[in-house]
Amino acid sequence: MNGFARWVRRQAEATVLAYRALRMWSPRQVIVATAAAVVVALIVGLVTVLIPNSVFVRDIPPVPWNYPVWIVTSALTGILIATYIRPPHAPAGDDDARPSAESRRSARVGGAAGVLAWFAVGCPVCNKIALLALGYTGALTWFAPLQPVLAVVALVLAAVAVVWRLRGQVSCPTPALRSAVAA
Q: For the segment 117-127, what is each residue's pLDDT rounded down to a tens digit?
């Protein structure tokens, strides 16, 4: 089996493990995921004026793909946040322990996905960074066409971060081995 086929197989296995982890979630984790997704959706939606409001203004109207990107990113971010809630069947561990490298990596990737989604669904000329760097015309000419690419990258990164976190909830034998060695 060549390298690409092995990679595809590993990704399929990781997705199956993530699905298993979701099925094992407690009602508390589902509630946290839902609440976090709603909060993220409200924050991003209000600030980018995907939810019309009188506080923020958008010079360029939203395009149709902004809404699905906003909703899916919010849902994935909510799920990612809920993965940090200890499941009821998890053994009690040292709460002061430092997070694992994979936990930090998934948090960084999820955070990057959120920032990219924010830039992707926001108004291209309302983005102060793009406006200062490129000017009004440059933001419309260069940044606006880049926004769909940012959206795809944000969705992929959010999905990868969620799969990493969920996979670790069902496949990581390290805590069980540590407790067995300590006993």
A: 999 998 888 87
